[in-house]
Amino acid sequence: MGEQTQMLNHTHFILSCCSFSPLLQFCQTLINPPLHYGDSGNFLVMGSEAEVYAKFEEKVKRTIYLDNLSPLVSQTVITKAFEQYADVGTINFIPNYTEPSCNSKSALVELGNEKQANAILDMLSSYPFMMSGMPRPVRGLPAEPEMFDDRPPKPGRKIQLRWLDPNDPDFEVAQKLKSLAKRHLAEQSFLHKKRLEEEEQLSKKQDATLKGHYEKFDMMDSLFADGTSQRLAKRYGVHMLDD
Q1: Burial of 221 (0-12, 13-18, 19+ CB in 10 A)
Q2: Which residues of 162-198 are buried (b: 16+ CB within 10 A; e: fewer)?
Q3: pLDDT in tens, 185-207
């Protein structure tokens, strides 16, 4: 029985690392609920599983998913940014396994309650929200159960994996799903490259704008310092205050 529990835990770990793959949807089967044991080794009944999953669903509702985060963004930065709007709890960054070179980060942020989570999402969708000088605004979405690597098993559901023989009737379907996943990855890489090019252009434009503003303020300071502003005011009859 201990080997069965260990096998189920190992299967859950594999699925957690690859939960976004469309191939897994092909391998999911609804059968009897799996066996799980508590810390004391006692068998957990169906009611206990339902209670654990219900608590997990409440956690999902008060959690938001953040994307387009700067690589410099840390848990402290996110906490400081949102603590004026909500009670910030656990923050977990999500690794990007498909695009290791991606220069943006994503994270799951748990808030005090569902109302606070919805308020943050409304704010992010209504106004540009920047963190750590990122040239693009942070995006926010409601969290999904599949985003959590520590999600408990859903009561009444068990996921099984098996190797498909080339002679298996489902082998061709699995091959099509595999090709589709590769196509989606290629499209994602292309869009990511185009987005980086657009952000680089936007960053250069922002730098040029800031440089122009700096030159204007520098010129105004020099006009006040050498008395040119007073002479111009006297010439055109404009009254200027010394302060």
Answers
A1: exposed
A2: eeeeeeeeeeeeeeebeeeeeeeeeeeeeebeeeeee
A3: 888 788 878 877 877 787 788 77
Q: Which amino acid is at 72?
A: L
Give yes or no for a contact between 188 and 99, defined as CB atoms under 8 angstroms apart: yes
Look up residue 95 and give its DSSP letter: P
Determine the Cα–Cα distance for residues 110 and 89; give it in Å rounded to an integer. Answer: 5
pLDDT of the residue at 200: 77
pLDDT at 112: 92
Handedness of CA 76, 82, 88, 94 (dihedral sign): negative
Residues in the chain with pLDDT values less than 50: 1-46
What's the CA angle centered on 9, arms 5 and 15, to 5 degrees? 145
Q: What is the pLDDT of residue 25?
A: 39
**Cβ(101)–Cβ(53) under 8 Å?**
no
Residue 156 near residue 50, CB atoms below 8 Å: no
Would you list the DSSP string of 102-171?
Answer: -S-EEEEEEESSHHHHHHHHHHHHHS----TT-SSPPEEEE--GGG-TTPPPPTT-EE---PPPTTSTTH
pLDDT for 95 equals: 82
Residue 38 burial (10 A CB sphere; 0-12, 13-18, 19+): exposed
Give the residue carrying structure tokens 């985060």.
69
Taking the C-alpha atoms of residue 66 and residue 96, their distance in angstroms, rounded to an integer, is 13
Q: How far is CA 36 from the centre of its chain?
A: 31
